[in-house]
Design brief:
six-stranded antiparallel β-sheet, 30% strand, 10 helices, alpha+beta, single chain
């Protein structure tokens, strides 16, 4: 029987450590391998530009008895991209692979700018009530939003893990700007009365920012939280919510990311505290339906997406708000600790994309 190879495009950092991956990444790879074995496919791992259109074979990492080793294998006919790369050359390369007949999924493989996603979702009138008022940050929009709202959130238009995000809050004496400097998790604050802090303008000059109204989200013991909702295409080729990961900020912080001290919980663990007036099943169903609706709508714009992670907030009354979209749903550092996945409920986040790959092999009769 011919071996069906699933190509998994991984970042350079992971590729360079394939002979000795760190134990958390190894857990993710192990879930990939177990799922693939169950459905009769074999993962092989490589960097994006290693594979070329119409080439017969590729040198890729494959799992053997003693770990991963480089092996020359037939070029895979299905590829799952797990890299975020906004370079035009990457988009062009993926397009050339698709034109050669390779089924590449989870495209775009780059982080689309946050404001672009906001504009796409805003086209749907039914989604508008669930989108925070959002503008590109300029001196004019800053003053306009400060006149309209008492709390604002400022974040880079392109970026990950909450880096560069700032909170602006009005008090009786003026305004308080909360922010962090690069490489630090220590929260700093600056006070001003009328003229906005120079820190805002300094960052605007270096990076394009968004400014958003600050939604009054539900809290977990007075700590802000949001959810990473994994919306993924499954073994039938349709979107499902594989898991909901709740990210709770550390004490006195406004960022929920693990890189800033946030902790990961299941919704079932915290819903009784965050939304006590709403039955858990009702809240979960509402978040799930919301995530699937957004995924299916985005699929009309990006038809080759399959592994999305929506950051979604919810008010105390249970109204969901879209925060932003990640084009890879999982974040290993928040779900796997010391070589152990935090909960079995998070396993489908890693297994579902592999099952979707199996669906593509079957649908297109690929060997």
């Amino acid at each position: 029987m011919t071996t069906r190879y699933l190509g998994i495009v991984i970042p350079k950092n992971d590729y360079d450590k394939m002979l000795n991956p760190d134990k958390d990444t190894a857990v993710m790879f192990s879930i990939f391998e177990q799922t693939a074995k169950r459905i009769g496919i074999t993962p092989c791992y490589f960097k994006l530009f290693q594979i070329k259109p119409n080439q017969d074979t590729i040198d890729a990492y494959v799992l053997g008895e003693d770990g991963y080793f480089l092996m020359n294998v037939p070029s895979p006919k299905v590829i799952y991209t797990r890299v975020l790369d906004y370079l035009p050359s990457s988009k062009k390369h993926i397009r050339s692979l698709q034109e050669s007949g390779i089924k590449v999924f989870n495209v775009p493989n780059y982080d689309v700018e946050k404001y672009t996603i906001h504009q796409i979702l805003y086209r749907d009138p039914s989604l508008r009530p669930y989108l925070p008022h959002t503008e590109l940050l300029t001196p004019e929009t800053l003053l306009m939003m400060m006149q309209k709202y008492d709390k604002l959130f400022l974040k880079p238009n392109y970026g990950e893990c909450g880096r560069g995000a700032m909170k602006l809050e009005k008090n009786r004496d003026g305004w308080v700007l909360s922010y962090k400097i690069k490489g630090s998790i220590v929260l700093k604050k600056r006070f001003f009365k009328h003229t906005p802090s120079k820190i805002i303008f300094s960052r605007m000059e270096k990076t394009q920012y968004l400014i958003q109204e600050y939604i009054p989200l539900a809290k977990y013991y007075n700590k802000p939280f949001d959810m990473r909702v994994a919306a993924q295409k499954d073994e039938h080729g349709i979107f499902q919510v594989s898991a909901i990961m709740c990210k709770v900020a550390g004490s006195d912080d406004y960022l929920t990311n693990g890189a800033h001290g946030g902790k990961t919980y299941r919704l079932a663990e915290i819903a009784e505290v965050t939304n006590p007036s709403i039955p858990y099943e009702v809240l979960e169903s509402k978040i799930t339906s919301f995530g699937i609706y957004i995924a299916e709508y985005m699929n009309t714009v990006y038809p080759h997406i399959a592994d999305l992670g929506f950051d979604i907030g919810v008010t105390k009354k249970g109204k969901p708000y879209f925060v932003e979209c990640n084009f890879i749903s999982d974040y290993v550092g928040g779900l796997i600790k010391n070589g152990e996945i935090l909960h079995k409920d998070f396993l489908p986040i890693f297994s579902t994309p592999i099952e979707y790959a199996g669906y593509l092999f079957t649908k297109y009769d690929l060997t």
